Amino acid sequence: MAKVIIKGDFNEAVRRFSHITMETKKAAKKHEYYLRPGLRKIEKSKEALKTNARARKRIAKRTATI
Fold first, then answer.
1. Pairing with 39, which of 16, 57, 64, 65 sits 20 to 30 Å away (CA)?
2. Can you state the percent helix, strand and coil of the chain, rounding each to 5?
3. Residue 8, by phi and psi: left (phi above 0), alpha (psi -120 to 50) or beta?
4. Considering the chain, what percentage of its residues have pLDDT values greater than 70?
5. Could you tell me the pTM of the whole model?
6. How far apart are CA 61 and CA 44, in angstroms?
């Protein structure tokens, strides 16, 4: 098992470690399987539509309560 020596703030070290692990997971997911460039573009646009729909829903909920 590896040892880690933390110099300085513990919370800052935890934050940096979680950022590194998040990047590692993102890279692993990206290379999980191969998509042709055209299909990758389609998948990316589908994901963008989902994200934008969630954001619009969240904004509509906020403005409805005001």
1. 57
2. 75, 0, 25
3. left
4. 94
5. 0.47
6. 26
